[in-house]
Design brief:
2 domains, Arc Repressor Mutant, subunit A, alpha/beta, 21% strand
């Protein structure tokens, strides 16, 4: 019997909490519902979830703080923000804190279910990718375990540990924006604080490795005010 996918739902409005929980359970998900951020963090540390649905406006500890705390421990679990504020500033803030998607209240429950399905599916693909030791971009293959890049003509280019780690992170989150905070936590582990220019230089190096035209990149992108993205043009 296939195990149900688990969702942590954090919403302080009772009627909305109940409606979302019921509809997700009807779709076959196992839902753990809580009403505040502190309880959510406690539950998150004790159990494993495939997705977190997180209201922004929560008592005591808001959704942005909860998301930021979760991302210090886990950069991979998808997070969907729910908010009553429909402003670009809030959306950018959510992405900077590590959210994967954003849904503005009031919303259609069918749209929520669709977004949940997409995020969970993407997360499961990412889990599968982690089992791979290599990844091919164009005519070059990255070998994560040996820290090298091999061209189809046999030429091998050595990669630094941080180049390999950043490539792996961006590829695991392919077609998504990855925030600078997530990169700091995963690649640099907050031991040092590289400037945005430092990370930009890594992206420029990746363009030299992989892009047919460095001035018009198709794989590696810097997204101003948000972060960085690897685009898999073949997916």
């Amino acid at each position: 019997m296939q195990q149900k996918l688990r969702i942590l739902l954090v919403e302080d409005e009772d009627h909305l909490l109940d409606a979302i929980k019921l509809n997700l359970e009807l779709e076959g998900y196992k839902v753990h519902a809580v009403k505040d951020g502190k309880t959510a963090l406690k539950i998150f540390k004790e159990e494993r979830f495939n997705l977190i649905i997180l209201d922004v406006m929560l008592p005591e500890m808001d959704g942005f703080q909860v998301c930021e705390t979760i991302r210090l421990e886990n950069t991979e679990v998808p997070i969907l923000f729910l908010t009553a504020k429909n402003t670009s500033e809030d959306r950018v803030m959510g992405l900077k804190k590590g959210a994967d998607d954003y849904l503005v209240k009031p919303f259609n429950l069918e749209e929520l279910i669709l977004r949940v399905g997409i995020l969970v599916k993407r997360s499961m693909k990412s889990d599968d990718l982690k089992e791979l030791n290599s990844y091919k971009i164009g005519d070059k293959t990255i070998y994560f375990n040996s820290f090298e890049l091999k061209q189809d003509d046999g030429v091998i280019v050595p990669l630094t540990k941080k180049e390999t780690m950043l490539l792996k992170l961006l590829i695991e989150r392919k077609n998504e924006a990855v925030s600078r905070e997530q990169i700091l936590e995963t690649v640099w582990n907050y031991d040092v604080y590289p400037s945005t220019r430092t990370i930009d230089n890594f992206i420029l190096t990746f363009r030299k490795y992989f892009e047919p035209d460095q001035k018009n990149p198709v794989y590696f992108h810097s997204i101003r005010g948000v972060g960085y993205k690897f685009t898999d043009i073949h997916s």
